Each structure stands twice: as C-alpha cells, then as structure tokens.
C-alpha cells in the first residue's frame, strides 16, 4: 500500500510540472503576439518613418598641398584640378550574394575605366604573365619576410605559391573564373586595397586619378547602380620640368599602412597622399594643409544621396627653394650633352660607358644651393596616377639607375681635385712654402727600398716628367710627385684634420634624405671598412685623392665654396623661405656658419693662382673648355681610377669669377675618362649663370 501511494504521488507531481510549463509557454506566446501587434499596429507608422530616415556620416575633405617654387618664383610642384574616382564602403557585406554583387559592380567599373583609357591604381603584390609575387624588394630574405606577413594578413596558407594565392583570393572575392586575367588582376587589386588595408565605412578610397569625361558621364548615367562610387574634383599634383628637378623636389605617394599608423593622429586618412622623398618629404608638415570635413548622406540601402561640406580645408604652406630652375635645366642638359660627346669621342678619347653624372652649384657667400642635378633622372609625374609594382621594378632595376641621386648619394674617389686640400694643408702647416720647388723625377723614390715607387700621371702616359715645380705649377699640371712629397711631410693625421675642417668625409646636412657620409682615408677607416692595416704608402696616395678617399659631389661643392670665400664653411641649404596660405612668412633661412679655416693670405694666393692657371694658362688641364671666357675661372680637374674594367671617373671643381667668387661647382662624370671633359659642363653652367652668349661646342676637328 505504501509503495502504491508513493507512485501515485510521483505521477501527480509530474503532471503538475508539465501543466505549469504548458501554461508558461502559452503565456509567453500571448505576450509576444501582443507586443508584435503593438509594434506593427500602434507604432507601425513611427518605425516606418524611422527606417526611411537618412543616415549622416562624416569623412575628411583633403586639403590642397602647398606649392614648391624655385628662387625666382617659378612653380616646380603645383596643383591642377582633376577628377578622381573613389569607392566608399556604405554597408557591410555579410552574405555571399552581397559579396558577389559588390564584385560585379567593381568589374563593371573596371571595364568602364579600361574602355576609356583611364589608369587604375594597382599596388597589388602579384604579377601575371607569369603569375608571381612581386614586392618590389631586391633583398630576397626581406622579400620573403614581407611575403609571409602579406599572406598572414589575408589568411592565405603560408605554403601557397603565387598561383595558389591568386586563386585563393579569386574565390574569396567571388571573382568569376571566366573573367580574363588582366581584368581579374585589376579587380583583385581594388578589392585587396579596400578590404585588406583596414578599409573603413564611409572613408573614400581612390582607385583612379585624373579620369576622363567619358568615364564621368558613364558613371553618372548609372548613378543608382554605382551607389558606393564617388567622383570628386580634387587638386592633383603636377611637377613642372619634372625630370630636371626630381631629386630636389621629390614626389608624393599614397600613404603606407606603417605611415598611417604613425601619422593617423595628425589627421591622415588611409587614402592620404604623403611626401615620399625630396622637399615633398622634408617639408611634409608645411606643405600638407588642414583637411576639411564633409557630411555624407546615406539612405537605408547604403546609397549616397548627398555630400555636404561642413568645414572647408586649408591649403598647405608654399615652399620657396634656393634652386634656380633655369640653371638646373642647363646643368642637366649639359651633363646629357657632354656624356654623349664623350661616348662619341668628340673630345679625343672615346669612353663608351660614360652614361651618368652629377653637378652641384653653390652660392659661396651663403651656402645656398643654386643647382643640384643627377643624370639620368626620372619623371615623378608617372607616379601621380599610380604605378604598378612591375613598373616600379622596371624603374629601380634600370642599369643606369635613374632614381639614384648621384649628387648627394654617389660616392666617388676625388682624384686630383683633392690636391687643393693637400696644398692648403701643406702651406698652412709650413711643410711647403709657396715658392718652394720639388723635382718630379717621374717616379717617387722615397719608399724605393720597400719596392713602392708610385709614378706621376705624365710618366705613365708620356714617359716624361714635370721637372721642378712649385705649388702653383703642381696644381696647374696636376703633378703627383709634388703632392706625394707634400703628403709624406704632412702625415695622414694633418691631412685628415684639414679635410674635416672643410667638411669632407661627413654629411653636409642638406635637406634631402639619402645623403652619404663619404669615406675619409685614414688608419681607422681602412681597418673598419677593409680590415687592412695602414701603410706609409697609403698616406701619399691619400694626398693625391686616392687610397680609400671617396666623397659626394655636394661635399666637394661645399669644400670648394669654403675655399673660394676664404675659409668660411656654411651650412648647405635648399630652402629659402616658407609662406603660409595667408601670405605670412613662417620660416626664413639665414646663412649658418659651421666652421672657419683661417687661411694665410700667402696660402690663398698660391692656391688660387694654381687653380686659375688650370683654366687659363698654356698647359692647364682645363684650358680648352674656358677659351674666350670674358673673365677668369679657378678650377681643378680630377681623374679617379676605381676599376680596371671601366674608365676613370672625371671630376671638375672650381669657382667663378676668380677675382670675385660668386659660385662654386663640382661636376662628376661616371666613366668620363678625363677631368678636362667634365670642365665643359662647368663652362655651360658659368655661361648660363652670368648670362653669357652660348659658346660653340669645343670638339676636336
């Protein structure tokens, strides 16, 4: 009986629990029905109106960059109006159909751009024909490291080849397999740019710059189809006389992810343009204006209905350089002409590898740079519409290195131009006297017992000597033996001391990135760089600009400017002033003295006379180039052998006029053969600077 009672009680409890749950369920359903009825019937109109309301989003309005002018107010980097095509992310793409539809729209946009000849920005890291990775990096280890990170960012298996990665992204972006390879690459490049660079809602991403009116018309006709596309009139950068000024002015480019993370707090967006090199980079904070603010009205479908400007942008400041763009053009064209003449043998010997060089001109009284050019150069305007990785690789792999600024980064043995320094040091230290004569015997015999007997150039070439020469004569005829002996008497410590006083072997501090230090020959550097001991023979070779001496053209021009003005070394300078958008001067350069060398009058007279005789007297190594000049020039040729398989580099340095120095210059011609050939570039520069009539080319009959 007891057991039966317990069983009945248990059944009753179970029944009660199920009854409770059933009643609870019915109650919840009734509550839900009542709530939905309330929302749809009572509040239906309210929520319908709310769903139809427009959404307002904020986005930056890019400010025009400031203009870069030369010293005479000629624009070198300017802005021009152009239309750009941008894509905005106005809704999240969650479903497969949404992603397919988005890609379909991108394909249509790409087809329109291609049909009308508009260039699409393509910084994608995969090339086609054949399909391969292309990160634009020569260092294989670094390229592999970048490749791994690139795959990680895109969730691509690390062991995938370029072909596999390409197919992986094709599927991820829902790009049809029957689409041609070139269009597929362009679509993939756009989608990669949108979705793997932290693409944000309502922040426009530029995919094409300076688009045609045909493209604009087609896009506008189908405005409802392309709701995420925005066509905007913007100030697009344009470089005047670009090839002549590329290494000074520099260029702008799209901000990298690393730069964005660094500068986003300054108001940069992921679509911002930023200075990449040259003055564009150095003066970025001035040239870049203050962005404005625009309000973007979007409907419930994510379509852009209207764009309103809430805050106007403020244009960047203008930068005025010390460069004379006309002189710059003359220097560049002269380098091109003289190098061609050398290859043709117009000056005597023919040197087929004479393809490149550099020239620098400095105001001796201020340190201001009047011309700084490197040949060959490149046109920075090609970057404005976007350059592909393949185009970039072609440029940086060009054997003539058109993007290498030889004027500040090229390091060359100075050859006999260094004899000016040795002469000054010898006279200042009293190891030689202005009228002292040293006998050139063809070979320098001081170290003959050790088997080291370096020869003078005239002995090697003609098997003759210069005889008895003083310092003026030695500079005029570039006598090695005279300066071997002067160098031995000085010792390397004193040679180095004077070289450093004149700024050789160290950066000038010019306002450009990529400047080289150069190499100053001494025991420490030889051990550090070559792991070799220093010998007495190194000292006398250093005295004539050999050993391991190697300097940049900008260093040599600064050195000669210091000699020309009597020993005051000024800070080399490219920027004259900066003026804000209201016309207020916010920066003005003032000549800055770095050091002074108190040269004796007797030292200056002897060295100046020697340099004058180089260009004006019979037997002077550069006399031919300066015939018929209405005033005298001081100069020095230099020929530096650096390889047994190539011709020597050709140097010419000097200042003008001789009796009232205004400009100093340094010219180097890679594989130019003879320093006297480089003097023809100096002659063209002098003619242009002093507004002299152009001379006929000094070619051999």
TrEMBL record:
Note the PANTHER family from the entry: PEPTIDOGLYCAN D,D-TRANSPEPTIDASE (PTHR30627), PEPTIDOGLYCAN D,D-TRANSPEPTIDASE MRDA (PTHR30627:SF2)
**Subcellular location as annotated:** Cell membrane; Membrane
Recorded GO molecular functions are: beta-lactamase activity; penicillin binding; peptidoglycan L,D-transpeptidase activity; serine-type D-Ala-D-Ala carboxypeptidase activity
Q: Where are the transmembrane segments?
A: 20-38
InterPro entries tied to this protein: Beta-lactam/transpept (IPR050515), Beta-lactam/transpept-like (IPR012338), Beta-lactam_class-D_AS (IPR002137), PBP_dimer (IPR005311), PBP_dimer_sf (IPR036138), PCN-bd_Tpept (IPR001460), Penicillin-binding_protein_2 (IPR017790)
Reaction it catalyzes: a beta-lactam + H2O = a substituted beta-amino acid
Question: A biological process (GO) annotation for this entry?
Answer: cell wall organization
Recorded E.C. number(s)? 3.5.2.6
By what name is this protein known?
Beta-lactamase
Keyword field? Antibiotic resistance, Cell inner membrane, Cell membrane, Cell shape, Cell wall biogenesis/degradation, Hydrolase, Membrane, Peptidoglycan synthesis, Protease, Signal, Transmembrane, Transmembrane helix
Q: Which domain of life is it from?
A: Bacteria
Could you give one GO CC term from the UniProt record? plasma membrane
């Amino acid at each position: 009986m007891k057991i039966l009672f317990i069983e009945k009680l248990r059944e009753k409890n179970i029944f009660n629990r199920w009854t409770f749950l059933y009643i609870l369920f019915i109650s919840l359903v009734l509550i839900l029905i009542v709530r939905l009825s309330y929302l749809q019937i009572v509040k239906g109109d309210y929520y319908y109106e709310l769903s139809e309301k427009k959404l307002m989003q904020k986005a930056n309005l890019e400010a025009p960059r400031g203009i870069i002018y030369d010293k005479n107010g000629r624009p070198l980097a300017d802005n021009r109006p152009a239309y750009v095509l941008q894509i905005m992310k106005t809704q999240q793409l969650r479903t497969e159909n949404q992603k397919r539809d988005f890609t379909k729209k991108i394909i249509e946009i790409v087809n329109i751009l291609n049909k009308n000849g508009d260039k699409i920005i393509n910084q994608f890291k995969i090339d086609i024909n054949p399909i391969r990775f292309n990160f634009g990096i020569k260092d294989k280890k670094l390229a592999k490291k970048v490749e791994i990170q690139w795959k990680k960012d895109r969730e691509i298996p690390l062991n995938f080849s370029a072909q596999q990665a390409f197919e992986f992204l094709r599927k991820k972006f829902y790009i049809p397999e029957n689409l041609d390879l070139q269009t597929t690459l362009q679509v993939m490049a756009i989608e990669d740019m949108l979705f793997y660079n932290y693409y944000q809602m309502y922040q426009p991403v530029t995919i094409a710059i300076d688009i045609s009116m045909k493209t604009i018309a087609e896009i506008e006709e189908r405005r409802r189809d392309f709701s995420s596309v925005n066509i905007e009139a913007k100030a697009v950068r344009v470089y005047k006389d670009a090839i002549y000024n590329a290494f000074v002015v520099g260029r702008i480019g799209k901000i990298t992810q690393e730069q964005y993370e660094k500068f986003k707090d300054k108001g940069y967006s992921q679509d911002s343009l930023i200075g990449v090199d040259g003055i564009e980079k150095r003066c970025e904070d001035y040239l870049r204006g203050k962005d404005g603010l625009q309000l973007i009205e979007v409907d419930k479908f994510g379509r852009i209905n209207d764009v309103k400007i809430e805050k106007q942008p403020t244009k960047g400041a203008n930068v005025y350089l010390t460069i004379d763009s006309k002189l710059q053009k003359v220097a560049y064209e002269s380098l091109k002409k003289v190098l061609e003449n050398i290859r043709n043998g117009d000056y005597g010997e023919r040197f087929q590898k004479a393809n490149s060089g550099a020239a620098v001109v400095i105001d001796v009284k201020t340190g201001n740079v009047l011309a700084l050019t490197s040949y060959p150069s490149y046109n920075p305007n090609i970057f404005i519409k976007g350059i592909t990785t393949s185009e970039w690789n072609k440029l940086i792999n060009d054997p003539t290195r058109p993007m290498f600024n030889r004027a500040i980064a090229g390091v060359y043995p100075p050859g006999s131009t260094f004899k000016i320094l040795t002469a000054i040091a010898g006279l200042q230290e009293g190891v030689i006297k202005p009228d002292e004569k040293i006998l050139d015997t063809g070979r320098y015999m001081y170290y003959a017992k050790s088997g080291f007997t370096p020869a003078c150039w005239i002995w090697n070439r003609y098997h003759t000597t210069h005889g008895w020469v003083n310092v003026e004569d030695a500079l005029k005829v570039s006598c090695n033996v005279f300066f071997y002996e002067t160098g031995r008497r000085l010792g390397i410590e004193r040679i180095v001391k004077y070289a450093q006083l004149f700024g050789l072997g160290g950066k000038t501090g010019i306002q450009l990135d990529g400047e080289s230090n150069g190499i100053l020959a001494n025991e420490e550097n030889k051990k550090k760089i070559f792991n070799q001991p220093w010998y007495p023979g190194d000292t006398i070779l250093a005295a004539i600009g050999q050993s391991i001496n190697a300097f940049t053209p900008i260093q040599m021009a600064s050195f000669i400017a210091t000699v020309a003005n009597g020993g005051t070394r000024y800070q080399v300078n490219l920027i004259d002033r900066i003026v804000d958008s209201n016309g207020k001067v916010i920066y003005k350069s003032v000549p800055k003295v770095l050091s002074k060398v108190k040269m004796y009058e007797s030292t200056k007279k002897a060295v100046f006379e020697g340099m004058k005789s180089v260009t004006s007297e019979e037997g002077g190594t550069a006399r031919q180039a300066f015939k018929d000049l209405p005033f005298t020039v001081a100069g020095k040729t230099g020929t530096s052998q650096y390889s047994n398989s190539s011709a020597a580099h050709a140097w010419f340095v000097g200042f003008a006029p001789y009796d009232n120095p205004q400009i100093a210059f340094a010219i180097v011609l890679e594989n130019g053969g003879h320093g006297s050939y480089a003097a023809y570039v100096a002659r063209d520069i002098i003619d242009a600077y002093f507004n002299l009539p152009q001379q006929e080319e000094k070619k051999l009959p």
